[in-house]
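Structure, all two chains, one model.
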Amino acid sequence: MKFTLSWLKEHLDTEATVAEVVDAMTMAGLEVEHVEDPAAKFGQFSVAKIVEAVQHPNADRLRVCQVDTVDGRKEIVCGAPNARAGLTTIYAPIGAYVPGSGVTLEARPVRGVVSNGMLCSGRELEVADDADGIVELDGALKVGASAAEAFGLEAVIDFEVTPNRSDWLGVAGVARDLAAAGLGALKDLSVKPAAGSFREPIEIKVDGEACPVFAGRLIKGVRNGPSPAWLQQRLTSIGLRPINALVDVTNYLTYDRARPLHVYDAAKLAGGFLEARLGREGEQVAALDGKTYPAGPEVCVIADGSGAIGLGGVIGGESTKVTDETTDVFVECAWFDPIRTAQTGRTLGILSDAQYRFARGVDPGFIAPGLELATQLILQLCGGEASEIRVAGEPPAGRPPIAFDRTYVKKLAGLDVPRARIDEILTKLGFALSGDQVTPPSWRRDVEGKADLVEEVARIQGYPSLPSEALPEVARPAGGMLTVRQTRMRNSRRLLAARGYDEALTWSFMRRAWAELFGGGQPELLLTNPIASDLDCMRPSILPNLIEAAEKNARRGFADVALFEVGPIYKGDAPGDQLTVVAGLLAPHPPKSWVKPAVDPLFTLKADLMALLDELGAPPLQIVQGHASPWWHPGRSARLQLGPKNVVAEFGEVHPRILKALDADGPMLAFEVTLEAIPEPKKKAVKTKPALVLSPLMPLTRDFAFVVDRATPAGDLVKPILGVDRQLITEARVFDVYQGPGVPAGSKSIAVEVTLQPREKTLTDAEIEALSAKIVAAAEKAVGAKLRA
Amino acid sequence: MTDLNQLQAELTARAAAGGNLAELEALRLEALGKSGSISELLKSLGRMSPDERREQGPLINGLRDAVATAIAARKAELEAAELDARLAGEHVDLTLPPPPERRGHVHPTMQVLDEMIAIFAELGFALAEGPDIEDDFHNFTALNFPPKHPAREMHDTFWLPEDARGERKLLRTHTSPVQVRVMQRTNEALPSWVANGQAPPIRVIVPGRVYRSDSDATHTPMFHQMEGLVIDRAIHMGHLKWTLETFCRRFFETEAVVTRFRPHHFPFTEPSAEMDVQCDRSGGSIKIGEGSDWLEILGGGMVHPTVLRNCGLAPDEWQGFAFGLGIDRLGALKYGMPDLRDMFSGDVRWIDHYGFSAFAAPNPATGLS
């Protein structure tokens, strides 16, 4: 919504400057977005008068002028054919930047005569298109007056209207709030009705659903044509194009009173009636914008005997529009349903000034007055004779009175405002007071209850006067504010960052094809209006996003990356289908180093994963190979589980087929941990740790080399060894795996270091021997392991 | 007498000249070994008369001590020289680089989230959560966005397909639906992490991912918001003002931050407000705590009576405030990140530059940042 200070002053008696208006608006809740100030743009240009203009000695087309300027008399060379003595025009001094030609003026001889400035054309100043000559101004203007003033340009204030305040879509509504805020006195906004001199001949019908009320009148014998300068100036000042007097009146009232109207050439109306009704299947409207719109049963149309001729509250029709030849005009002032108007605008893609206002709800109390005001302006500008007003339907009921205990201002806002002041504010805003009852004005359909009234009082009294009061103390949760799960998310981040992973945040959506590769892509998880076609499906896994990020980094020259993300994945559209996962990805392309890494990077990743699970307090997990999801390398992946139904994590190398589908270069190693799968301790309270029992006896180790089938997992060998004596054996650690000469074909040798922790007494050689024999027997029983010879 | 002196001079000279440990050991055996020359002299003491022994004893023992000391001293010298020689051979070039190691970083948005959690934890707030895929009731209707109201359009909602009942879910456009979930208990089957009805008094913050169909330098289709909700019997707008002022001072870590509270409109609060911070925009970047420009940073207000009623709370009994802020946006403002889209790029150059050390966990002892 835009307006100018002089327009505001038509309704508000004020001495305020633009800056003061802007400040008052901001603090009253009218958020100013932009002030376009032509005074700044034309700051260097001013009014000047040519005293003398003589032929240039060396050029036929040039004149040498003596000019009275803001800087005194100047000799200026000018090529304009209209440069003549006595002309009042615009002067630009040396050093000025001329926007229309893009040059900065220098004192330079023109064919031997120095020009001490420049006289400007409308095109050079970008105020008009004519380049035939320099600007010709009213001789009454004073030399030195600003160009902005000479052109009648003033600052334009552009502000955001929140959806609740349709009354701010008219300058008068802005003036009312600013008057209440103390910026000046509101002028009389009332409209005096004028009696019509004959009966309105065109019948009006409404169907209450599409249009509850429709008022109109005929004005005969008008002379249409360009509107007067003051009206054209008003419209152009806020960027509207003057069309003709009748149309300009409707546009003016749209912005002045937030009251859209429509004018019809009565001679073009068929059937002697106008009707506001829902459209019909197959009906069309050829609109004023030159386009034809379908007008089906969901939109409100205005129809005459020929059918639909306009979209009610949205746009008028081409067939009945007023022209310079129009002599009889029918003026429409109606109230269209906000929701239907909003939908019509959205469906048909029409954003007109009328549609915008009807969609937000125009003042139902300003139907007859709006029509009267339009009539007065038309009679004033175009002459003619007005009929009586004809009204069909009933305007929607106003808001009922609100019981308003004034102490509620203190209770809800914490603000001390005396009752008299509360009532003063409400009265100035147009509320009717009667005892405790407060009735909102017809233009404030947003005010529904006493909280709304508190807002009115607080915003006009001023939010700076709100107290700043500390929150009362409350008991703090003993275990901290975070739940176990929230703490785990936080710790995951810091653990992985400490282990060299960079945290990425990626979209919750991805392309459907990728989601399908990772077990997702269900129809209920597809966005109907994605921002891009490759972001159309809620993600079933974070891995595709991390793979894509790693690949993009590689293409930028940073192939060796470790990334992680802690975030949601979606298995369905119910709240319980949203899981939180910690996903990590390693693209191992280590830089060349004089220290050779000894380890398969997959085990680096495994170490990171185990450290993470340990930090998160996961219980001991089974590790299962050969059953991981299909996006993993079948031989280089595994899952960690509490049981087959409760998989906590999967990790491994990403399947080359998947990388190819994602257009990424491998290898890439990754893990995904589902936080919800890790059991939570029953209660997060201070837990006393079990007493530490330290044995005075040294632990001792024994090494065993077993030969097993090549396919036997090392984990299957270690587990039975640990089970031999859970008290005595504290660790069994694989320290070598070998296959080759000395080991039978199809077999491998696994070397295990077993740690024994004696508890009460030193073990005798015989006891150690006996235990060793049990270990060998258990290994043989479990996986057929033989001690290596 | 002269013999003993001569012997001592000879043996100590040989000890001092010992070229290696083996030579020195041979000398020790020769002099002090079982049948060494000094040992023999000591044995001869037993054959002497008491007078002789009284005279010779101290002399021979003195001789033995002197020689033993000389040998030990030389031995220590030789051992030190040998260690020096070995260590000299163990020189390594410590200008060589250590094996390559990655430096990981916490994403600035998550760091900023931790900062905010630290601030609000001190003010007694707990943390509540809700799902990203929401229904129309929680995201709009319960929050006093009437069906088909223009305010809904301003949210640029992402929609999911219609289900069999003709209802369509959506990606939440703000964290406010969790307000509803915190206040209102439902019988819907919910996982334990989703807030579900809590009796007042309520004091929670709600961080999370939110979604709007919008993309440019200052808008991303997904971003992070944090909601705050306080419900009690006598919480008023002055408490909201204090809470947000306190938050701003602590978050921007300067007492110099100047804030401004001005009226605004949100369907789910009444009265509503936006908060601006004073800043300086000259020089291409935004500096908080100086200058005379204003920058809007968050919105809030008193929870609308209709919202309270929709959640089963009587507005005459319970009242309170809610506010919402953009975590990414405030992080960008605090730490000077020009384009919000970069936050979701996964570009390691960006993360390494703007990210935080794992050990920089915000806490009251070390400060926020």
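The radius of gyration of chain B is 42 Å.
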